[in-house]
Design a protein that fits this description.
By secondary structure, the chain is an alpha/beta fold. The protein has a domain at 50-185. It contains eight helices and 13 strands.
Length: 314
């Protein structure tokens, strides 16, 4: 359905469309309208729910506590750090040997991006799964924030997991990262400006997001798993991200697509009115392999439904 409502990102008023979506992840079924911009192609919720916290209950998946042991064996810690040193292109023969058998533990971490003592901020960290895993691989200066936490989870010299809003934060960081958090935030332009303020002059910003106008959106529309109404307030495109970055005084240094089989498996479940779960036993092994192969193909041609966007201050 066409509409004259303006896009909140580029201001376009012409030929925009409205899509009727429902909350599916928690099986609530609440209805929400999304605008699809005919100019920058971004998707955006028309009206943000007043009680958005309702859609982030304590059992929400990103709040689940990591299943790490109470302590890390010193040998395991040494091996994890050696492996990561190799993938960060540091000289480490043991890490090089391990890499023959083990993949990069953080595929989004480009060589030269970080040092083990880099100051790192994870915005929208949930329970802190990623930064806790990074600590267990040798990083020593980690902070995670999430406004939907019930309380601060950890506050130590090397690792902090805090109930904080982005706009409460001060200081400067070598690396700021958002792993599927940016799409949950209202006023993305102001968010990018704030993120830029938190960067050291040579700092880097990583934003991992679902991508609108991708193959998965065109195929599944409102059954697309990553639409995730109403938690995803904005689903961006490379075009909308370039517009926002330019206004915020940032530049995009690179984009790497990292979509997975989930765009197909979970969306196919939604088409069948099956609530979300990470149980994909309904699909055959061949189907799952086909999903993964197609995800890899789409990533290669820049049409995957998720991407890592690397930015820095102009």
């Amino acid at each position: 359905m066409s509409t004259s409502i303006a896009c909140k990102i580029c201001g376009n008023l012409h030929n925009n469309r409205i899509h009727h979506a429902t909350e599916r992840l928690l099986n609530m079924g609440d209805p929400f309208d999304y605008l699809e911009c005919a100019s920058c192609y971004a998707l955006q919720i028309v009206e943000t729910p007043e009680n958005l916290s309702k859609y982030y209950p304590t059992e929400y998946y990103s709040f689940r506590q990591p299943k790490f042991g109470l302590s890390l064996n010193p040998l395991v810690y040494f091996l994890k750090k050696s492996l990561l040193r190799h993938y960060l292109q540091k000289f480490d023969p043991i890490g090089a040997l391990l890499s023959l058998f083990l993949p990069h533990p953080f595929h989004w971490m480009k060589p030269g991006l970080l040092e083990f003592n880099s100051s790192i901020l994870d915005v929208g960290c949930g329970s802190g799964r990623i930064i806790q895993s990074m600590q267990r691989s040798g990083f020593k200066n980690l902070t995670g924030i999430d406004p939907f936490l019930e309380k601060d989870l950890q506050d130590t010299p090397h690792l902090k997991i805090l109930k904080r809003d982005l706009f409460e934060m001060t200081g400067k960081y070598d690396f700021v990262m958002l792993h599927h958090a940016f799409e949950h935030m209202d006023q993305p332009g102001k968010v990018l400006e704030k993120l830029g303020e938190l960067l050291q002059p040579s700092g880097k910003l990583l934003i991992r997001i679902p991508v609108a106008n991708s193959h998965a959106w065109r195929k599944y529309r409102t059954h697309w798993f990553a639409l995730d109404a109403p938690r995803h307030l904005f689903l961006h495109t490379t075009h909308s991200m370039h517009l926002l970055a330019k206004r915020a005084g940032l530049k995009i240094d690179g984009i790497v697509y990292d979509s997975s089989f989930v765009q197909f498996a979970s969306s196919e479940k939604y088409l069948r009115d099956i609530p979300y779960s990470d149980d994909f036993s309904m699909f055959t092994r061949k189907q799952m392999k086909d999903f993964s192969r197609e995800a890899a193909r789409l990533n290669g041609i820049g049409d995957g439904d998720c991407a890592c966007i690397y930015l820095s201050v102009k």
